[in-house]
Amino acid sequence: MLLPHLEAGRREAGCDEAGRGCLAGPVFAAAVVLPPGFAHPLLNDSKKLSEKQRYAARAVVEQEALAWAVAEVSPAEIDEVNILNASFLAMHRAIDRLSLAPQALLIDGNRFKPYPEVPHHCIIKGDGKFLSIAAASILAKTYRDDYMMQLHEAYPYYCWSQNKGYPTRAHRLAIQEHGASPHHRRSFRLLPGTAQGSLF
Q: Is 108 annotated as contributing to ligand binding?
């Protein structure tokens, strides 16, 4: 049973990211403020939902949330600041875009770069504990999946429609055969046995 809040009576925004472990594409993040006492049977950690359930849950979140926002950080920015800082930056951008200012942030994970003037709480496996973080995980995941499906049209041989940029065997074989695309993260180890970023 997911919890509706960490502290009752406080406007909390749940934050989560998607795509940290990918070889290609941006990292996406979402921030969601849910109404007090909100509950819905579809809302759960995005990793525990089927694709169909995730998109159905996304529609619920977009319709019922008091405020929600999604943001991304590009592969070039990831290469510049590293993936951990890029994840924080994506969350900050999502929080920036909220139409309603949160009084506290619930962050999925164990680390975060403080957002100005808003206290935060890092919660390990938070997407399986708090509704607002679960909602953010669903938005981040589905918006990133949509983005990778669009990229797949231009680069079908990387199988991004299936792997969404994660390091599957088919993805790595395609990099070996076709080289890296402009959407690959240059600072990542794209092929096993090579030095990090050595493909370029």
A: yes
